[in-house]
Write a sequence for this structure.
């Protein structure tokens, strides 16, 4: 909470929740290049078939054995490794 207060970003961080209230995300395809890293300790770990059906330009999918919803905080080395692997494919 302090991070949001000190950086004055509470409203912008809540915007996604406000704008998506009541929407059915199951039918909202995204037509942009997408990379997905699934951290197995998260609340929900979708199957790859879900990613294939949702993202027409899915170019990276990896399932990481450790880390959760706050992967960058919990497993910073793994998170950075995932970013590097993902962006290496975009070169």
């Amino acid at each position: 909470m302090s991070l949001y207060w000190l950086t004055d970003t509470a409203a912008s961080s809540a915007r996604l929740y406000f704008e998506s209230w009541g929407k059915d995300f199951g039918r909202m395809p995204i037509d942009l290049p997408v990379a997905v890293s699934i951290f197995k300790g998260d609340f929900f770990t979708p199957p790859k078939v879900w990613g294939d059906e949702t993202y027409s330009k899915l170019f990276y999918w990896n399932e990481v054995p450790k880390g959760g919803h706050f992967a960058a905080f919990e497993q910073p080395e793994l998170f950075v490794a995932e970013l590097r692997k993902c962006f290496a494919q975009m070169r």
Notes: Residues 76-88 form the longest helix (13 residues). The beta strands are 30-39, 55-64.
